[in-house]
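User: Study the shape:
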Amino acid sequence: MPRVLIIAFGNPLRCDDSLAWHAADRLEGRFSGEDVEILRMHQLAPDLAETISHCESIIFVDAASVDVPGNGQPGEIREIQVSSSGSIPRFSHQLSPGALASLARSLYGAKPPAVSVTLTGECFDHGESLSPVITAALPALVARIETLVQRLLSGEVLGEAPPDSNKA
């Protein structure tokens, strides 16, 4: 059972939507395999509830759309606590981090602390290359995740992000 599970999700064939996969590639091998496991997924599905029920904490990594209010400008990194107290959709092939955490709580009694780290993307067209703004922001995203993993491994409880944490 890894202490920290990183779930990088998105579509690797939709430009900036693949940024979590790129971050996962850069994070690979930087932590002990016993402490940290990295999964790459196209989407969050109900079968992941059992997997996350065995972890001490979870970090979800995803691209955020600039078209959704509150996601910020392209290249902006956001860290948001994930709540497992929400309702569970009755039928879904794709879940939000909160819905997946709620499912793990409901089915397995698991309540691992979870955080969602997003980077606001610019281009979600078909393609395999990241936009220039995301390419430039990717090192800051990876550094942010590394810091978060170190905090979790040191026993720090997830709570509010450190000061200036929303700046890339």
In short: The longest strand covers residues 57-65. Strands lie at 4-9, 36-41, 57-65, 77-82, 114-121. The two ends are 31 Å apart (CA to CA). The domain at 4-153 is CATH 3.40.50.1450 (Rossmann fold).
